[in-house]
């Protein structure tokens, strides 16, 4: 998404709010873009930064061709600073470095922008540091915070930003878009439940890691039902070595959520809603016999709790061990 009109196709309200502010020269000192992965947060942040620095802007649309636009696109503009999680969180030292950068005058203009990706991963010390930034904004400084988990943002930070909610994308339309790009129907159904980002979905489909991740996830569920004494061994020998990075660990839990939902859907006669297993997969019948509806609802809640713990930086091995005990309990 390179223009506001393209943004408006998926996020009409967000596009209208921001373009109106640009045209009226009423840019907020801080924005909080909150929405699921793939809903356009980074594209909006890039466009807003370009609109602030572009010397050949037409209304709210940056020209995309000038020196400033190209440097922002490549991530090399000296007055546009990006802060991303270092590992699983954004640390105090990263915000201190950002504050130091902001003590210098703008290198190419008096405008400065900083973008915080994954603002929900700010440690408590880092959040307090950035709160000071938001409480005493410098002139012509714009903060853009992005999050998939707005409930984890400190209320004091949220209250100092103009919050912009990005609506979820249409999963059915996204599935058809994936199929049109050569993704099989079965993979398109699963990928559309995991992400709304076209490039990411196609990349995952072509990645051997994803194919094995799906296999390992199904094997884990089968181990719970067929070889419960081997589950801990499976977690340490198969699951953790494959799901190494935080994003992979979160996706693993997301896939488990979808698979256990499939089993529940079979219980209640909603097989058409299944995304991981095929309707005629013989494994599902055995899993339906093993997991009761009540147990499945409990497992789904435990999986959501495990996702929260990962976001709170609990060690992933500990998260999976606790989850295993809860599912077996």
UniProtKB/TrEMBL annotation:
Organism domain of life:
Bacteria
Q: Which InterPro entries match?
A: DNA_pol_HolB, DNA_pol_III_delta_C, DNA_Rep/Repair_Clamp_Loader, P-loop_NTPase
Q: What is its EC number?
A: 2.7.7.7
> Which keywords fit this entry according to its UniProt record?
DNA replication, DNA-directed DNA polymerase, Nucleotidyltransferase, Transferase
Q: Which biological process annotations from GO are given for this protein? A: DNA-templated DNA replication
Which Pfam families does the record associate with it? DNA_pol3_delta2 (PF13177), DNApol3-delta_C (PF09115)
Question: Record's GO cellular component, any one?
Answer: DNA polymerase III complex
Recorded GO molecular functions are: 3'-5' exonuclease activity; DNA binding; DNA-directed DNA polymerase activity
According to UniProt, the name of this protein is DNA polymerase III subunit delta'
Q: Which organism is it from?
A: Lentibacillus halodurans
